[in-house]
Predict the 3D structure of the following.
Amino acid sequence: MIKSNSGIRKTDVINRRMFIIGAAKVVVFVGIIARLFSLQINENKKYLTLSDKNRIREWKLPPTRGNIVDYFGNVIAGNLKVYQLHIIPEQVENFNYLLVRLKNLLNLSDKRIARINKLKAELKPWDSIIVSENLSWSQFVKINNYLYDLVGVKPVMTISRNYPFNDVYTHVLGYVSQPNEQEILENETIQERFVPGMKIGKLGLEKRLENHLIGTNAIQRYEVNAYGKRINQLEHQKGEQGSKIRLTVDTEIQKACGELLNEKAGSISVMDIYTGDIIAMYSSPSYNPNLFLFGISQDEWQLIRNNPLKPLINKTLSGLYSPGSTIKPIVALSALENKVIDTKFKVKCTGKMELYGQTFHCWKEKGHGWVSLKNAMKQSCDTYFYEVARLLGVDRLNITAEKFGLGKKVLGDYFDNEKKGLFPNTKWKKNNLGKGWVLGETLITGIGQGYIQSTPLQLCMMTAQIANGGYAIKPKIIVDSNPISYEDAKQSMESGLLFDTDSEELLDKKLFKNQKNIKIVQEAMFASTNERFGTSYKSRIDDPKYQFAGKTGTAQVKRISKRERELDLELEQIPYKDRDHALYVAYGPYVNPRYALSIIVEHGGSGSKAAAPIAKKLFKLIIDRHDLRNKQSNFERITV
Amino acid sequence: MFQHDRLSNEITLFQKIKNLDYILLISVILLSALSVFVMYSTDGGEILFHTKNHFVKLAVFFPLMIFVAFFNIKFWHNFSYIIYLIVILLLIYVSFFGIKSSGSQRWMDLYLFVLQPSELMKIAIIMCLAKYFHRIKIENVNSFTSITIVLSIIIIPVIFVIAQPDLGTSILIALSGLIILWLGGMKIKYFIYSFITFLISLPFIISFLKPYQKLRILTFLDPDRDPLGAGYQIIQSKIAIGSGGLNGKGFLKGTQSYLDFLPEKHTDFIFTLFSEEFGFIGSVGLLILYSIIIFRILRIGAISRSNFARLFCFGYAFAIFIYIVVNLSMVLGLLPIVGSPLPIMSYGGSSMLATMIGFGIVLSAKINHKQMIA
């Protein structure tokens, strides 16, 4: 009885305590449900975002660069489909066997094989290794034929920069290549859009206009697992191609420049004398920018680098030359403007001029006799210009020369390799060389020798500004968004005002005091080319449609000794390095002029023999293209 | 009384089957089926290693449960101490000859499958203490001798399991034991005093913890202190559960598990995958299914005539509850990470074996609920 009593009491205790626990269980379960509610209902959005962040990863693809087109819409820097070969290591059954097969098929070097093995060790097994960046079509076909035997190999089509005119525009456009670390750090846009394998502008406009040309990345969204392996593609967001840039250049003329300077070192610049459009800007010799796209080979690089004609230098902008006699129109103009001389002023040339015991020679040993401005210009009489320079003084000459663009950069900061040259004055010598100016130096400055240094483009601009009647122009190589038409430019100029597209203001850009003086100089230049005994008379064109006016120049690269002067050697007898530079500046047509040009042939001998004939060949083409060019002023009508 | 004994001994097989608790049985079958589907999802929607093995284990242990149920509850009462001793011996064996894996030694190779004796101890300790409190007079429950004995029964296996080391299982064993002391009538003040003592000595206990265990506590307090290291599991688990939302991402569509962001998704974190794919509704549904099971076990305990059956059922129901709570709190970030499986759902043979044996004894108590035990 006691026992059963105890049993009942025990059961009671157990039951009572069970109920307490049971109540606690309900509370705990409710607590857990509350926690579930808070995570899954209240904070659902937060955790969904986190879950997507986990599983979705973005891959940026290299952006597509904008095209660069010439004035007529021809693509001069475009994009081309290229075939690449990728290996995905995790799919390869026998890596060494595959490499041997590829080595035979594609003639890969041992170095390349070693590089692939190194990449394989560095990358994750599902990251693709680029075996070849640019397969030829025949290689691509070959690989596709053997694909059954090449497990893990993926032929890929992608887009790469391409310069269809090869070496024609190298110095204008530059080229693209893989960026180095510093280049990525320096440019925020590149930094933001960089992906391995992307190429950036290394030189020229490709570099200067990087931020316009670069384009935006295409983005691929992939679902990835916890180890970062792509499982499947969710989305493909197309990138935007970089802006199209239209240049003022004319490919036909640019190409002709290249042909005319074939195998010579030198430069040709052609400019619209009203709008300042650069029609052509060629530096010779050039090189093929397409070589740099996939890494230039050591041999090819050495060939370019060691070429004695220095293809790497953009001679149009960075080549500094004595202008020689091509400076004479400016000397004459300066003297006229400062009323030092008039058209009747005459000097007797005896072939040389003595000054303080020093002899200054005219190029014509026998002398020109009594010469006036027109004759002096026509025959390029040095004695006349010694005398004019002496009367004028270097400081007054300097003011005129700088007005016409000498000693200043022509294209501003568009090309970081552009040099500003030098037009000396007394102050400059004092400040930089610490010595006083000597009158003899004034004389040789008067014939474009001595300290004076100019780029071919400066000479072209100088000529253009004489040709247009003495108005300042702003040379440009990129077509503005609202290009000013040829007629408008001409009209606004002749009204004495220049429309500045940057500040959108009409500016007074008269470079002369009396326009008659410009006319006198123009006539003298006309005579130099089109009248008997003119230095470039042989290169004239009689047809008034093409008739041009110009001035030759022959720049000494070393002082001519007395002995050499007596020997009067033929060009071929002088070592290449010691030969004179041949120069020629011209504008045409003489009636209603439109274009100016400057030509320089390094070590070409005399300007009349080596440079002026080039102008004759070029001018016909330039004038013939003028009407076409006029019709092309509206950008929107061009389809690329 | 004797006659009654004889009567119940004469229950036929047909009656036994008729007397099974079908609601409990159906709930267990539902849970088992669900667990196979979830395992199928952890295998990425294919019938692979885990799905196959899990199914095979269910196919073996479910009949075993029925087999256990057909033994009279008196039989289980009689063998309780012996079973406890056998499991203690297995623990001792394991601590010397067990298989080592990832830094702990808690398994023995039985050729057919690998057994973890500590899981069996979860059941054995309930049986042992149920028998003890069944037999002891209520007046003697709080005597010094009695307290010493029951504490020894708990502490001995706990020490072996801690030494393996396996903190999670040892805590579950200790809690399963303590609940029987509570139900058996031990004075409330003892529980209060021990709890206070535990709180006071907590800093001392923490200093004894292994570095990785301390790290787990720190991580629990602030998972973001090392999101890719120690905190990774809990952060990813919360992301999976939270991103499940109301309806879940759908069966086989849990990105967190499918893309391998969830660690240990087959075992301790199985609920995370379930919750990601079936959402709040599914999770609450699972909790309701567990609640039905717990409620049925409590009901069987309540109708049992013998205090052994009653204590076992109540104790086992509490143990199941504790397993669920510890596991869910862990994956929900409410408790530090301690290894503890979710009954039936988690992959793992020993845990399932112990759970099924437990259900079997409960069903035996149901079949023989009128059985008195002297």
In short: Chain A touches chain B at residues 6-7, 9-11, 13-15, 17-18, 21-22, 25, 28-29, 32-33, 35-37, 39-41, 43-44, 46-48, 50-51, 54-55, 223-227, 231 (CB under 8 Å). The first strand of chain A starts at residue 56 and ends at 61. The first helix of chain A runs from residue 2 to 42.
